[in-house]
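Chapter review: from sequence to fold.
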Amino acid sequence: MRTLMPASGALFVTMVLAGCGGEAVPAAIERTTVTGAPVAVIDTMIPDVLEAAGTAAPLRLATLSTKLMGSVTAVLVHEGDRVASGQLLAQLDARDLVAKRSQVDAGLAEATAMQADAAAHAGRIRGLYADSAATKSQLDQAVTGLARADAAVSSARAMAAELAATASYAEVRAPFAGIVTRRFVDPGAFAAPGAPLLSVEDAATLRVTVSAAPDAVRGLRRGSVLEATIGDATTRATVEGVVPSGGNLYTVNALVPNADGRFQSGSAASLALPRGTRRAVLVPVEAVVRQGDLTGVRVTSAGSSSLRWVRLGRVHGAMIEVYSGLAGSDTVLVATGAR
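The token string follows.
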């Protein structure tokens, strides 16, 4: 409902309450004289898109744990710290592994010494056998002894490697460069195999994930470029993949570069999925007048202008879509001042 009310150059807006305590709806239009350039409303065809809502998550996110059972002796980082790849983040008590390491090293040294002795003995028997001073049985025994010594050394080395791998779990290191997002334990806490200790994420690339019906994702392929909205900002996203997710829905994953940290991981996000074209009414962004939560444009006619409240849509470059309140035959004013 619009009613024109003269007000001697002042602005009067009549508000109609939609129901008890309902939303206020403007019902009157200001008429005044404003300087500026008249611009014809553009009634044209634009790409039709579906705004599929989802979230923006870091491409690389790791929750770190250990295979050992023991107490945490040190946690060297806090939430929000930036870490480098391979950086030591936490340590566990590994004194029992240190003691076992000494035993394994001693066993390896003994096996190596026995291998050297067996090799020397086998060499002597081969020489004697060549001079017919040793029997074939003696030679076979020497060769067998050397083979057993070689096997003992291999076994000792395998035990040493296994122990080294186990001991490495006493040190929790960053799998990639990123930021510590969660610290689950403090020094003195007991760590169990598989229990989370720390979380690290790398938000240099974000993955926007949305769900949509099959007809909305038809034609999308890996490498397709879409418009993405993360928070209040728009950017370009490259489709990583489109996969069925059950319930007659498809999941679309798209990657957004974020090396400068412009976007926050975990933010609400959306992807503009193309659906062909549709007719739309466009006006310059500069023509929009904002008063609180209300948006309008100045429609000019016969040398005067009227402020008409409209419902706005998506921004297309320097133009913005008007969902309702304007016709394609209208002319709006890009105001530079009022009097």
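Two observations follow directly from the output. The domain at 94-169 is CATH 1.10.287 (Helix Hairpins). Helices lie at 95-130, 136-168, 214-217.
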